[in-house]
Each structure stands twice: as C-alpha cells, then as structure tokens.
Amino acid sequence: MKQFFKFVLATIVGIIIVSILAIFFIVGIITIASSDKAVEVDTNSLLHIKINYDIKERTPNNPFSGLDFLGIDGEKSVGLNDILANIKKAKTDDNIKGIFLDESYMISGQATTEEIRNALIDFKKSGKFVIAYSEIYTQGFYYLASVADKVYINPKGFFEFKGFSSEITFLKGALDKLGIEAQIIKVGTYKSAVEPLILTKMSDANRLQVTSYLGSLYDHFLTGISKNRNINKDSLFNLANNGIIQEPEDALKYKLVDGLKYKDEILAELKQRTGISQKKDIHSVELADYTKSSPKTDGNIVNTSKNRIAVIYASGEITGGEGDDNNIGSENISKAIRKVRLDDKIKAVVLRVNSPGGSSLASDVIWREVVLTKKVKPIIVSMGDVAASGGYYIACAADSIIAEPNTITGSIGIFAVLPNLQKLFNDKLGVTFDGVKTGKYADLGDVSRPLTPEEKAILQKSVNRGYDTFTKAVADGRGKTQAYINSIGQGRVWTGSQAVKIGLVDRLGNISDAVKSAAKKANLKDYKIVTYPEQKSILNKFGEGLTSEVKAHFVKAELGENYRYYEQIKGVTQMMRTPQARMPYDIVIK
Q1: 308-412+472-582 — its CATH code?
Q2: Which of 59, 88, 68, 60 lies closest to 28, judged by CA?
Q3: Residues linked to residue 158 through DSSP beta bridges, in sequence order
Q4: How many CA atoms lie within 13 A of 564 on its CB side?
Q5: Angle, alpha carbons 470-475-477 (nearest 5°)
Q6: Alpha helices for 453-560 (secondary structure H)
Q7: Cβ distance 340 to 310 under 8 Å?
Q8: How far apart are CA 340 and CA 190, in angstroms?
Q9: What CATH number is given for 45-161+245-290 in this structure?
Q10: Spatial CA neighbour of 290 closest among 148, 106, 84, 122
Q11: What is the b/e burial string over 174-186, where b = at least 16 CB atoms within 10 angstroms of the residue's CB?
C-alpha cells in the first residue's frame, strides 16, 4: 500500500509539473507570436530575400514561426502577399538601397515565381539595384534571378539549364500486385487523373496535352530570360538542348551570369553599393522582419476610405466542410463569399484561386456563391499557380478572369474511382464476404466485389450529368456555347497564355491587376483592401492545428523529396470517395 501511494504521489506531482510547464510554454508562445513591435530599418540597408520554402498565398498565422521546439525547424515563412507587399514598400523606402536576392530554390509553382519576378522588375524602376547570388542555381531560381542587375555564382557552384520535363508516377503495377482494381468512370478524353491507376505509361492524348502546355511554359521561360539577359531565345534553347552549360564557367561564357564570385566578394560589393565601410557589417533586413517595418502610404489606397475591396483566398484542394489554410473547404469559402456579398461597405471582390480542384460537389457549392455575388457587385478572379478543374469551376462565373502566362488551368472534366478489392481480400488475405440485401442496388459501391454492368451505367450517368453541369456553368460564365466548351474541355490542361487564346481567361496579369480591375468596374478611386477568410487566431491554431502540423513536419523530414509521392497516395484514397473535378496530377517542373 505504501508503494502504491508513492506512485500516486509521484504521478500527481508529475501532472502538476507538466501542467505548469505547459502554461509557461503556451504563454511564451502567445507572447512571442503576438508581438507586433515595429521593426526599425537602418539607413543604407538591403532587403535580404532568401526563399527556401514552399510559398503560400498568405503568410501563415503560425505561433511557432521563428521558434525551434521538439526538433521542429522554426524558420519564418513569408506568404506571397507579404513578399509582394514588401518589395513594393522597399521601392519607396529611402532606407532601402537595394535587394540582395540570395540562394533560393523556388520550389513553388511558376506563376508564384512570375509574380515575384515582376515585382522585382517594378522595384528596379526606382533606380535601386538588385544583386543575385547563389552556389546552386535551379532553373526556377535562375528565372527569378535573371532580372537582377548582376547575377553571380560561386566559382565551384552548380548551374542548372537543361529544359523542362514532366514526370508522372504510375501505380497500376503496385495495385496489380496487391490485387486491387481501380474501376474508372469518367468524362473527358484528356481527363488523365485516373491514368496512374489503370496504365503503366502515358496515353497518347495525355502525352499530347503535356507536350503542348510544357512547351508553352518553356517558351515563356526562355522569352523572359532572353529579354532580361539580352540573349537570343534560340541561342538559349540550343544551350539547354545541347547540354552546353555544365560548369559555372560555361554560364559566364554564354552570359547567363555576370561573374564567378565567392560570398566574401559579394559582401564586399554590397558594402560598396550601400556605402558601408568594408570593416563594418552590412545593414540588412529579412523579408519576415520587414513586414513589421513602418508602412509607406500607397498612392492608390487610402486606408481611411469607407469603400472596400475584398480579396478572398481560395488555396488548396477543394473539399466539403470547413477546410483550413491549406485546403478549400466549401463551407468556409462559401461563408466568406456570402459575407462580403452582404456587406455594403465592400464594393467589389477579388477571388484568388490557387487550386487543382477536388470534390465536384464542393466546387459547385462555391460556384453558386460566386454566381449570386456577381449579380450584386463585381467579382474578379486572379489565378495563381494552378486554377484547374474544380479550381476553374469556382472561377468561371466571375465577371472576368486574370491569370499569369504560366498558370495551369482548364482541365474541365469529371471522374470517379471505385476500388475493387476482391482479389486482395480473397486471394491475398483469404477473407470472404456474404450477406443479404433488400434491393438490387442496396450494396452499390461495395469495394469487396467488382461493379456490375448495370451499376457502372448508373455511375457513368451520374458522372455524365456532372460534366454536363460543369460545361454549362463554364459556357454561361464565359458567354460561349456548351458545344464549344466541350471541344476545349474534355479534361484538357492549358497554360494561362493558351487559355487567353481559347477564351477561358480574359487577360494576363497578377493579383494587383485583378484588384485594379475590380476597382475600375466598381468605379472606385480610393479603397481599402480587406482579406478573407479570416485566419484563425493564435489560440485556435494552437488548439486545433498543432497535432497535424507536427505530424506533417516529421513525415516531411523523414521522406524528404519523396513527400510528394506520399501526398499523391493520400490523394488517391481521397479520389475514391466522391466524384472529382481535379487536375490529372501535381505538376513539378524539373
């Protein structure tokens, strides 16, 4: 009994200690994360830009940003919204003399890179300089860096310039070994999301569309570099096609870079450009910190204006329910659109879409709110890296659609996947099933057996109806015939540049252009921008999102670059639940 009480006492003491530590920990997190102290920028400073993380549309409201806890890297990540705002602010900030574009891998989509690149081009109009340096230039980072006044590389570094490739992971062989059959119901010749489940290589139709949009992306890539580096586009193509750029010396010889320098030489040049003594440290401010510096008044925006333009961020896969910062929940986004529609202070809406699609039902729920909003106030869509399939569905009813040249869009199609696990259960596991039912179709969707021809016909009819609804929505929204939309639909993927030519997009531009377009349509000269959905508070995020964020961190740390394959497998399981209007696959340009 004495030993029992000792254990009980020890347990109680342990609980008390842990509780006290937890309280201190939470208070410390809240104190650090809620600190809103303004950052003072020294004179003759550099804005230091180094992006080695996946760029989200908005800076995450993350209480752990900048902290190291339980092995979690606390690197501060800045969203595209603040990256663009900071570059724009630095343009008129007398304390900022230039931008140092430091080694960045640019693992985000090409449209995101395009927006930052254009912001840097605009920054240079101030007469201030941009210097780029890296030990390793990926093609994505070089495309961004090519706008700099000077581009430098480490003499022993690596320079990647080889052209684009697109790779698809096929799972059919693995499914066959497991005894799993993917039963496919779809509409669209090019709707190839299901191909990895039923084929071992690309279909001819899919190869055609990938060749087309990859060529469009590559042409834009070469055109941009050609313009900023003053090198003939055909010459750039030949350099990549023939594998001529192998060493930093090759990049210098063919004028892709301006010099081979070590970091100390770069620092010396930056000191000279900012008028800092070589014996002193460079004055610089990081992107995340610069967000907290005293803001400059924007000539186009009067913060005291009663007029407002709402920017609604719809980013991630489309699902039912609330969603989160990384997924578009139909309930959450619909609520946001409805809220701005009913707010008389909000005169126009910009819907920022960065989504490969997802649930066709959830997409339709959001589409309905866009249609209703268009009846009472202007709504403009700004497309990010991807606005395809369901991502295009929620955009098509807007007054106008603006995309980047290298946005991935289109993919107008519907599909459903139902697994047949009979061989897995019977042959691999020795598991059998038996039962009774009150109707012929009472067990429709049972994964322990294959679909009957009649059941397939029922599901095909449902998918056909979904595709008809989708194409009609696009036809009505874009002022085209349904037959025409069907001809450019069929699940085919297009780039922003291609989409303008076929009428799926109105013009090329960025989110700033979309805001200006909304203001013009609402006849506004001064306005205040407000953003939706409201990001969760620190306490809510701590209470709800910590577990998932920690889990995601450790999975990423363990799998590294293979994490995207893990995400693809998760996506497959999701596709097997409800009819989908989503991209054929995740596009990674190599």
Answers
A1: 3.90.226.10
A2: 68
A3: 136
A4: 11
A5: 95
A6: 453-478, 482-488, 496-502, 511-521, 538-559
A7: yes
A8: 36
A9: 3.90.226.10
A10: 84
A11: ebeeebbbbbbbb
Task: Give 580's strand partners.
Answer: 359, 415
What does the pLDDT average to over 100-117?
A: 92
Q: Which residue has the tokens 């996946």?
A: 54
Tokens 């394959």, located at residue: 565
| Tens digits of residue pLDDT in 562-589 | 545 445 555 554 554 455 665 555 555 5
What is the percent of the chain with per-residue pLDDT over 90, rounded to a whole number? Answer: 70
What residues are labeled active site?
Answer: 191, 389
Phi-psi label, residue 162: left if phi above 0, alpha if psi -120 to 50, beta otherwise: alpha
Whole-angstrom distance, CA of residue 585 vs CA of residue 196? 9
Q: What is the pLDDT of residue 5?
A: 47
For residues 535 and 61, what is the distance between their CA atoms, to the nearest angstrom? 7
Domain boundaries, the chain: 45-161+245-290, 308-412+472-582
Q: What kind and span of H or E run contains 330?
A: helix 330-342
What is the enclosing helix (H) or strand (E) of 495? strand 493-495
Two tokens, residue 75: 């690197």
pLDDT, tens digit, for every residue of 402-432? 999 999 999 999 988 899 999 999 999 999 9
Same fold: 45-161+245-290 with 308-412+472-582 = yes
Contacts of 560 (CB under 8 A, 6+ apart): none
How far is residue 421 from each of residues 87, 433, 544, measured CA to CA in Å? Answer: 54, 12, 35
Please enumerate in sequence order all residues whose Cβ is within 8 A of that of 325, keeping only pairs 6 or more positions apart, or say none.
56, 58, 60, 61, 315, 316, 535, 536
Structure tokens at 346: 């909000």
pTM recorded for the entire structure: 0.86
Distance CA(51)–CA(29), nearest Å, equals 24
Residue with tokens 């252009």: 513
C-alpha 561, offset from chain centre: 17
Name the β-bridge partners of 402: 382, 507
